[in-house]
Amino acid sequence: MSAGSVAVVVTEEIGVPSWDLYELSIPCTVFGKPQPDLSEHWYDLRLCGVGTGARDSAAHPFGVSVRTPYGLDDLVGADTVIVPSVPDACVEEGAPLPEGLVDALRRAHAAGARMVSLCNGAFALAEAGLLDGRRATAHWQHTGQLAARYPKVEFDDSVLYVDEGDVLTSAGLTAGLDLCLHLVRRDLGAHVANQLARRMVVPAHRPGGQAQFIDLSVPEADDASLSPVLEWARRHLDEPLTVDDLARRAAMSPRTFYRRLQAATGTTPLQWLLNQRLARAQSLLEATDLPVEKVGELSGLGTANNLRHHFLKHVGVSPSDYRRAFSRSGPTGDPLTA
């Protein structure tokens, strides 16, 4: 017996780009190697190619070829179907997905398969309509494209993965490993998932979500007339700043400044200021050993408690957890950062 069959879609069989191999290897590592001392029932893994035949791989000089006896028809009947990624052209240029993939995904879901995407594999599940009316995620760099292309889906770029029961999606790269371990936890229990994570030398559960990885300092304004005042504001984040202050410095009325900044950046002046202050705090936590009280002061976020509040709300982790994860010099050991 097995813990269930897992069909992994290989959307590029010839010249698989090296940067897509990571997502492809994650389900192979988690589900493909039996762990008899952890569970007598493990998974039956199958790689299923799209069957597009040989292609010129010169466009991907660092790519590899994947040969598998299984095709898209083998998705139907699998207990779990995983789409690790889709070709870059489908994401960046809106090129169609490999022929037959969308239909195969729909048939597999109709037959009762649990559907899973890693990173930009969400484009395939969304195109098949399997995410309509659901909450989903993908790499934070792609969620904007996905939301524009598939308005019936609620995309959340702050989390590592989303479990909607029979449809699950993950953020980019290592978040796919978080999701696959979550599936093991669902299927075989927490003990098995935790022991497997230890063997892979990864945390069984990571604190926070992918919000901690997003560059909060973007977007930049594309209105050149705003650049001087925004650059001035960045140099004075440790001071009290209001929309009236910025508008006056830009020689605009507050209403005009609000409208111009929102048009240029897609965010309000107060949200822009908060994002800049959070980005400054992140930089200070990464590069210095300053206590959180000083980080809050220099970033304009105020007290240590206020800094913690905004980090937990917008970054998804505490300042101390963020520093431990991203400090350029390793853990500081400073008790004031706890």
From TrEMBL:
PROSITE patterns associated with the record: HTH_ARAC_FAMILY_1, HTH_ARAC_FAMILY_2
Parts forming coiled coils: none
Protein keywords: DNA-binding, Transcription, Transcription regulation
Protein's recorded name: Helix-turn-helix domain-containing protein
Alphabetized Pfam families for the sequence: DJ-1_PfpI (PF01965), HTH_18 (PF12833)
Sequence ranges assigned to domain HTH araC/xylS-type in this UniProt record: 227-325
UniProt entry tagged with the keyword Transcription regulation: yes
Keyword Repeat: no
Taxonomic source organism: Streptomyces spectabilis
GO molecular function: DNA-binding transcription factor activity; sequence-specific DNA binding
Highest taxon of source: Bacteria
Organism lineage string: Bacteria, Bacillati, Actinomycetota, Actinomycetes, Kitasatosporales
